[in-house]
């Protein structure tokens, strides 16, 4: 029996402000029907200006720690595209607010793949004997980087945070994370990006315009690449885990778009009804989407102990990844 990272607790946090499609349609050339038919989204939550990414991360992290039944961890990993500051990382702030003393803390930046990258990082810390318990959080205030006049992005994304506590355990017990597959393709850097989001290159930006400081995405190309890369990554970890596709009880993919999730299920040969979805309620929450989907599915009774779960994500970078998990008995957060 090899040492493995085992899921011990989960938690979520959403800001209080709920924004419906109707509210957005009032200022965009759009409608509730248009948004629902293309994305599957009915509403999303958005943080007020006083709410930081770290605030949402602390909310989700505290619930995950309570769910795990243990108040302390050795490390905190925060996956986010929208840190409180460019420097320093948000994770040390979160660790401090949670009263975790001098726990190791760092951020992971892989956009919508961030939580999976964070899980892999935590699993490595545990497998290497560096940590016994790790708190992994996906947290976003993505609404801050959206162009309010761009209906192609402003109707899709929401804010929120989800978290998981991993503990050292055996690879044979329920909750143990299975094999990981991670990948990237830097040639797709401009497909999902904030064009002027960093320091200017030598000589300055070439005539930057205000829109360059907002998030942009080439939706059609991203759609097909997401299905392809997540499908390939998912099949890779299934093969490594020795699972047949028909043995998978639930697919929990990054909640990007309900059409992507359904096409992905088709791509890997899984019935669409086995794909977990909460995008209608919270929208695309980037790095927070997978843990939020896990928390909501657990609360609904969809995820039951012993269920075989396949996780996969695709995000900017381009980045992607997948892993497997047999769902454990965890306390509600």
From TrEMBL:
The Beta-ketoacyl-[acyl-carrier-protein] synthase III N-terminal domain, residue ranges: 106-186
Domain Beta-ketoacyl-[acyl-carrier-protein] synthase III C-terminal residue range list: 238-327
Subcellular location: Cytoplasm
Enzyme class: transferase
EC number(s) recorded for this UniProt protein: 2.3.1.180
Keywords noted in UniProt: Acyltransferase, Cytoplasm, Fatty acid biosynthesis, Fatty acid metabolism, Lipid biosynthesis, Lipid metabolism, Multifunctional enzyme, Transferase
Keyword Nucleotide-binding set for record: no
Region listing for ACP-binding, in residue ranges: 255-259
GO cellular component, one term: cytoplasm
Domain description: The last Arg residue of the ACP-binding site is essential for the weak association between ACP/AcpP and FabH.
Protein task: Catalyzes the condensation reaction of fatty acid synthesis by the addition to an acyl acceptor of two carbons from malonyl-ACP. Catalyzes the first condensation reaction which initiates fatty acid synthesis and may therefore play a role in governing the total rate of fatty acid production. Possesses both acetoacetyl-ACP synthase and acetyl transacylase activities. Its substrate specificity determines the biosynthesis of branched-chain and/or straight-chain of fatty acids.
Subunit comment: Homodimer.
Cited NCBIfam families: fabH, PRK09352.1
Family, similarity comment: Belongs to the thiolase-like superfamily. FabH family.
Stated name of the protein: Beta-ketoacyl-[acyl-carrier-protein] synthase III
Gene: fabH
